[in-house]
Amino acid sequence: MIVQFQQIDKEQIASLHFPATEVLKEKEEVSQRKTDLERALALGNLETS
Question: What is the pTM of this model?
Answer without folding.
Answer: 0.61
